[in-house]
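Annotated sample (chain length 420).
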Amino acid sequence: MKNARKTVIKIVSLFVITMFILTFIGYFMNGEEVNSPIDEKDDSITENNSPYNIALSDFKQNGMKAMWISYIDYQSVDFSSEESFTNDITQMFDNCKSMGLNTVIVHARSFSDAFYKSDIFPTSHIITGTQGTEISFDPLAIMTEKAHEKGLRIEAWVNPYRIKLNSQPKEFSANNPANNENLIVTTESGVYYNPALQEVRDLVTEGVIEIVKKYDVDGIHFDDYFYPDTDESIDKSQYELYSGNLSLDDWRRENVNMLVRQVYSAVKEIDENVTFGISPQGNNENNYDMQYSDIELWLKEDGYADYICPQIYWGFGYTTQSGSDRFSFEKLSSQWANYERSGKVKLYIGLGAYRIGDGDGGNNDQSEWKSGQNLSKMIEMINKNKKIDGYAIYTYNNLFGNTKYQDLRAKEVSAIANIE
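Output written by the structure step:
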């Protein structure tokens, strides 16, 4: 009996093995997939061929190729319904993609307001004409979805301190944090949050946290609106209380440093993959002495920013009225490229599309801005410089929405699209 059981077990085992082999061969012969780790890898490869993942790969391999889309550009967008907004923003993203770009930097907060559903800041007056008026759809949610669908990274652009510039917006909504007069300073140019206050740093940071937690954005972006004025009176009482042994200038720079460090840390605590970048003025002396922004520190030390994108909005031949060419595109971009930099911090260059046709105001011949290929030449120079990691173009409407020099702008767009 024992030998008979062994024989039966052998027969059953051989049968099971044979059926497994035949089944495998059948799948193979019919061209059907077999569930295995290799197949899971193939599924991943297929998924990685999505437009968004291709954009991420391009960004990683070739650097940032971005377009700024500002609140000014939004003024040509139809916010009257979700459908009309979606159609307009989709067309904008299609145009950006057609140029070979991989990133859009869209305004999320321009004046202590929101182009998204916020529990902290009121809806922007740009959307409805009146700050704080609720709308039925979420612009940033739509922009994030459509950007990724079209194969573009998206960064949420935030002005940390600016509340009112000249006469815009005309009035604040009742739920605007700027109604707290203890938080603000007023200058000739407008109204700003006081950079000297920890309460302000916390407010700005909470606004950034809200965006990163609620939306699948790829980055947070600040521009060059830091300290609103050099006037000693705007934060005099705070300086007397908190400055210690620091000079006024150094104390102000540390106030900005604290905000930048706090925002960077908050972003990374939520998602290490979300970038935090800053676009200062191209003239770094102005950053240091007038904006109280120590950009060289942020470049060389970790914990401040993932990238710096100076706005170099002058041409190759730019000269000042005194005849100096120190701010020419080639010299200034080289200056930024040669600053000491942490291996974790990228350098991008901001390009001024608004100069097309009109020129940069230099004391020199302005024909380069009428060539139809000035921006593309700048990008080609950037691409050849191993110390520079990409570029951003200011702004969308200066290439697509402005009828002045329309043919010239179209040539610039074509030239950029054809860069190899």
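Annotation: The chain has 15 helices and eleven strands.
Annotation: Residues 111 and 163 are 4 Å apart (CA to CA).
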